[in-house]
């Protein structure tokens, strides 16, 4: 019997929240959905948070994810912006917690590294690599890069969760490769 797993990825934001849903069947990921939630039209920050919570609950009810991968806030110079972003992330996490969905948090650098091999890759490079890896037709790619960032969080989690095999845990891809040199192409 084929084992299915659904991973929801979220790129939290107070202006735009991006999300992507991966279906993993027989250890092969494929795109189920991706999109954005435009929050700029809501002037009140607390109303934005309420909308984020409601949308994440709606996505959970529609796609029934097994896990949530979310991008962690990055440290910037503007403390107020960082606080607002952290609140947006927290509300999305609270929605998942309310439905007993395990949460996995990834730094933006780690997500970019997992998808492109470069932690400093541009958002466009991440979107391009996602399109190639997941075989997404041009017409299914969204112009808002927040959507592909949400999908990237989900794919990063898929890759990272594959680093555990049985009781053996690996620190990173290099550790995995070193322990399995006979399986690594040169």
* Rounded average pLDDT: 89
Profile the largest sheet: 5 strands, mixed
- Under CATH, the topology can be stated as Nucleotidyltransferase, domain 5
CATH superfamily heading: Ribonuclease H-like superfamily/Ribonuclease H
SSE class: alpha/beta
Q: Indicate the proportion of strand residues.
A: 15-25%
Strand order of the largest sheet: 3-2-1-4-5
Tell me which CATH architecture applies here.
2-Layer Sandwich
Indicate the radius of gyration in whole angstroms: 17 Å
DSSP summary: helix tally:
6
The CATH class label is Alpha Beta
Regions with little confidence, pLDDT below 50 for 5+ residues: none
Helix content: 40-55%
Distance between the termini: 34 Å
């Amino acid at each position: 019997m084929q084992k299915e797993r659904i991973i929801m990825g979220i790129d939290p934001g107070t202006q735009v929240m991006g999300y992507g849903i991966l279906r993993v069947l027989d250890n092969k990921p494929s795109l189920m959905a991706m999109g954005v939630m435009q929050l700029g039209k809501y002037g009140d920050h607390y109303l934005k948070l309420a909308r984020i919570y409601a949308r994440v609950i709606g996505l959970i009810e529609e796609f029934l994810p097994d896990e949530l991968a979310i991008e962690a806030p990055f440290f910037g110079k503007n403390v107020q912006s960082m606080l607002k972003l952290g609140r947006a992330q927290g509300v999305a996490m609270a929605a998942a917690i309310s439905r007993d969905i395990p949460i996995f948090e990834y730094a933006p650098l780690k997500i970019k590294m997992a998808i492109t091999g470069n932690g400093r890759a541009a958002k466009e490079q991440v979107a391009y690599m996602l399109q190639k890896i997941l075989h997404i037709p041009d017409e299914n790619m969204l112009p808002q890069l927040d959507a592909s960032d949400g999908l990237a969080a989900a794919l990063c989690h898929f890759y990272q969760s594959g680093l555990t095999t049985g009781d053996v845990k690996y620190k990173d891809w290099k550790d995995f490769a070193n322990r399995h040199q006979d399986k690594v192409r040169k």
